[in-house]
Amino acid sequence: MAQPTSKEDFKDYILRKIGAPVIDINVADEQVEDRVDEAVSFWRDYHYNGSQLVYLKHAITEADKVNGWIPLPQGLLGISKIFDLDTSISTGTGMFNVNYQFVLNNIQDMTSYSMQNYYMTMQHIEFMQEILVGKPLIRYNKHVNKLHIDTDKKSWVVGNYIVIEAYDVINPDEYADVWGDRWLQNYAAVLVREQWGLNLTKFTQMQLVGGVQFNGEQILAEARADRERMEEEAIRSLQPLTYNFIG
Q1: Structural domain span for residue 79
Q2: Are 19 and 121 in the same domain?
Q3: What are φ and ψ of residue 191, in 5° steps?
Q4: How does pLDDT run across 160-211, given as a tens digit for each residue?
Q5: Which of 120, 147, 155, 184 has the fewest CB atoms found within 10 Å of its own CB?
């Protein structure tokens, strides 16, 4: 069968994955829905396929300057950095631009030799700016959706743009391919299996027609072990290498 492309298809897929319809899975549809939402939430937070790096721009308003924070869209996992509000040391304008001056004075060498010297010099200038000027401190919480920038308000120029580097979650409603993610399928199946085992624990040695028995405690224990293993694997080795953000 083709990979699921909707939430309903996904729910049916993971139920079949753990035994339906051959076995009656004693889990309510509402419980399956909750476990799928829980799986998607964890996948977004800890799996490299659950989020994407985005760059946002925001034009500073007078209200932003008074508040000391700027509003951000919902759904962002965190902010990794913002580009400096005051970059006059390294950028400037026209002939006073450091890049312009460096290229102007070294154009012959740059066309004849390696670009290594230029690259190393620009890295050194950036390092000097960070030491002498510093980077603005930022605070962000994904449940508040406000980016606080703790810096001198004089650097806030109304009409100028702030560029923000952030991580945005992948929305399954927009990208149906999410439901075909193998790790998400396996993790959601484990969560539903754990719910199944938890539901069965109220029946000790429940016997079905034909003498078949379900051991709820065993199903629960195996599912919990699988969940802990998958979560540990995701936290340890599946997060993006650049995950170092606020929020």
Answers
A1: 51-169
A2: no
A3: -65, -40
A4: 999 999 999 999 999 999 999 999 999 999 999 999 999 988 776 666 556 6
A5: 120
Is 247 domain-assigned? no
Determine, yes or no, domain membership for 118.
yes
Model pTM score: 0.77
Is 2 inside a domain boundary? no
Claim to verify: residue 23 and residue 57 sit in the same structural domain? no
Q: How far apart are CA 247 and CA 224, in angstroms?
A: 28
Q: Which residues of 174-188 are buried (b: 16+ CB within 10 A; e: fewer)?
A: eeeebbebebbbebb
Structural contact between residues 208 and 26, judged by C-beta atoms closer than 8 angstroms: no
Task: Give me 177's structure tokens.
Answer: 């391919």
Token output for 69: 């924070």
d(CA 217, CA 208): 16
Are the CB atoms for 184 and 47 separated by under 8 Å?
Answer: yes
